[in-house]
């Protein structure tokens, strides 16, 4: 009996050790104090996760959320944005904003701005497909600060976005159920906080590889209550050295393309991280990437998920679903 028990124990230990710990998406993962994190152009920056935040800047951001820019693109002005200003009705009335068309808000990540690649890429796929109000939010005033300060200021920036959208909705009559908030990296947590400010009433919140460092146990991170339907796409899970994404479930439906840690055709974490918005943009056009529901994280890691299907991404405002999904992609667009 003792020998049988010992054999079973050894088998269990071996089975557990055969699964890389990086694939288990532990909620308790902690990053080293110093990490490398890229800006929007792929340049790496040394980040001190224990740095003292810039309280003067944070206090100013809290007092003045209108510092953020809201830049409207439509089919009438696909390349030259119109600036929309909170509490300025004329800026809305004199713009091409169409309350009968869906509104998509795109929010960049750390050390980025309105010109970072995610913004024109997602803008263009929407405008090619249908009449849309694409609003690019530029929050560079905080996003260009050190990482620890930017993390602390994300909730205030998100609340500012929420208040702007509430103003826009009240002024134009467009319901929140016609709005889709899309954020990348730190921007994913921004849109989560914006949705929270609006009582979780926006149609969709899409978190594209939400940032991991300083967010694993952060109550201000994006969560399933931030919209009617909240989706996350994880492409650079934070449980390998240099991983930039949170790598754990944060939404109603969490997708892990290719396991959520490394992506085909990528040799760097920056490439893995960016694949989230590249995948999403492709799905707006093709709606072709289909996930399978996983019963647990081991199935996800071993690619043995056989549950119900759910399409990742796309532009459908009435989309719904829940659970954890695995799918595999190719190396090149449209993946």
UniProtKB/TrEMBL annotation:
Gene3D superfamilies in the cross-refs: alpha/beta hydrolase (3.40.50.1820)
Family annotation (Pfam families): Lipase (PF00151)
InterPro entries noted in UniProt: AB_hydrolase_fold, Lipase, Lipase_N, TAG_lipase
Keywords, comma-separated and alphabetical: Secreted, Signal
Signal peptide positions (record): 1-18
Location in the cell: Secreted
One GO cellular component term noted in the UniProt record for this chain: extracellular space
Transmembrane segments: none
Keyword Signal found: yes
GO molecular function: lipase activity; serine hydrolase activity
Main location: secreted
Domain Lipase per the UniProt entry, residue ranges: 62-305
GO biological process: lipid catabolic process
UniProt KW Mitochondrion keyword: no
Family: Belongs to the AB hydrolase superfamily. Lipase family.
Protein name stated in the entry: Lipase domain-containing protein
Organism, scientific name: Spodoptera littoralis (Egyptian cotton leafworm)
Origin organism lineage: Eukaryota, Metazoa, Ecdysozoa, Arthropoda, Hexapoda
């Amino acid at each position: 009996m003792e020998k049988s028990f010992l054999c079973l124990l050894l088998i269990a230990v071996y089975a557990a050790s055969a699964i890389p710990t990086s694939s288990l998406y532990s909620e308790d993962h902690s990053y080293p104090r110093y990490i490398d994190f890229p800006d929007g152009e792929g340049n790496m920056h040394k980040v001190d996760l224990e740095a003292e935040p810039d309280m003067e800047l944070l206090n100013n951001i809290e007092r003045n959320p209108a510092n953020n820019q809201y830049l409207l693109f439509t089919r009438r002005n696909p390349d030259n944005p119109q600036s929309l200003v909170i509490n300025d009705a004329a800026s809305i009335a004199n713009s091409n904003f169409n309350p009968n068309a869906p509104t998509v808000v795109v929010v960049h990540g750390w050390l980025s701005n309105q010109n970072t690649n995610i913004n024109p890429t997602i803008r263009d796929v929407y405008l090619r497909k249908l009449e849309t109000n694409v609003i690019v939010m530029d929050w560079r005033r905080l996003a260009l600060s050190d990482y620890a300060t930017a993390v602390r200021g994300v909730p205030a920036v998100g609340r500012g976005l929420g208040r702007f959208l509430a103003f826009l909705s009240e002024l134009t009559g467009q319901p929140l159920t016609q709005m889709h908030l899309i954020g990348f990296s730190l921007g994913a947590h921004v849109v989560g906080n914006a949705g929270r400010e609006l009582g979780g009433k926006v149609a969709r919140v899409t978190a594209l590889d939400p940032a991991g460092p300083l967010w694993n146990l952060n109550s201000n991170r994006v969560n399933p209550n931030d919209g009617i339907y909240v989706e996350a796409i994880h492409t650079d899970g934070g449980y390998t050295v240099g991983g930039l994404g949170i790598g754990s479930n944060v939404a109603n439906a969490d997708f892990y393309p290719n396991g959520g840690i490394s992506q085909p055709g990528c040799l760097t974490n920056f490439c893995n991280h960016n694949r989230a918005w590249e995948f999403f943009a492709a799905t707006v056009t093709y709606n072709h990437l289909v996930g399978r529901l996983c019963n647990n994280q081991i199935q996800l890691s071993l690619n043995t998920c056989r549950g119900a299907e759910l399409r990742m991404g796309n532009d459908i405002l009435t989309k719904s679903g829940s659970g954890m999904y695995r799918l595999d992609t190719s190396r090149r667009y449209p993946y």
